[in-house]
Amino acid sequence: MEGEEGEGLRLSKRFSSETSKSGEVDYKAKAGTAWSHSYLNQKPWHPLSYPNQRRKWIAEQTHANHLRRSEEVAREACL
């Protein structure tokens, strides 16, 4: 195990043995893609997804109505 090449940390860019001397990186061997924002927006926990924005708006409106009603009740109770 000791002294073997290729062991250790794996990098996202792969260096081939022929190109490592010239400093070139082999991008064709790299697998995977970057995450896009539209992918994250489809997650149920993401705050920018449409259903979550709708739920938040409804909750804000309900909270504002409760505050307004409680202020009205407090004003009427003082009279």
From TrEMBL:
UniProt protein name: CBF1-interacting co-repressor CIR N-terminal domain-containing protein
InterPro entries listed in its UniProt record: CIR1, CIR_N_dom
Molecular function terms from GO: transcription corepressor activity
Domain CBF1-interacting co-repressor CIR N-terminal: 44-77
PANTHER family, per the entry: CBF1 INTERACTING COREPRESSOR CIR, COREPRESSOR INTERACTING WITH RBPJ 1
Stretch list, region Disordered: 1-23
Cellular component, GO annotation: nucleus
Organism in which the protein naturally occurs: Ficus carica (Common fig)
